[in-house]
Amino acid sequence: MLDADEQRTLLLPMLIELGANQAEAAIICEAQVEEKVISEALNMPVRCEEGRIRIYKPQLALLRKKLKTTTVYVFSPKIVA
Q1: By C-alpha distance, which of 24, 26, 46 is closest to 37?
Q2: DSSP 3-state assignment of 35?
Q3: Long-range contacts for 17-24 (Cβ within 8 Å, ≥24 apart)?
Q4: Domain residues of the chain, as ranges?
């Protein structure tokens, strides 16, 4: 899935930011490699905007199921829009 340069660029664990309502989450992304990994895991296109990839609760459950040990929750009073 990832070439050697992308593997070095990918920061693990991936941080999943949860807001107060927990209806949606944001994955903190530093580079396009996070987009590639999340898109592949969810089998759908995603975009990194303002340093975040926004996903909804059903997508979060699927992502955690597939990437359980490579993701960590970060709780935030508000997710940056």
Answers
A1: 46
A2: helix
A3: 17/52, 17/74, 17/75, 17/76, 17/79, 18/73, 18/74, 18/75, 18/76, 18/79, 19/76, 19/77, 19/78, 19/79, 20/77, 20/78, 22/57, 23/56, 23/57, 24/54, 24/55, 24/56, 24/57, 24/79
A4: 4-75
Q: What is the pLDDT of residue 29?
A: 93
- The residue that leads in pLDDT, 78 or 34, is 34
CA distance 33 to 48: 10
Fill in the amino acid letter for 16.
I
**Full-prediction pTM beyond 0.90?**
no
pLDDT at 35 over 80: yes
Amino acid found at 67: L
Question: Residue 21 is encoded by which pair of tokens?
Answer: 């309502």
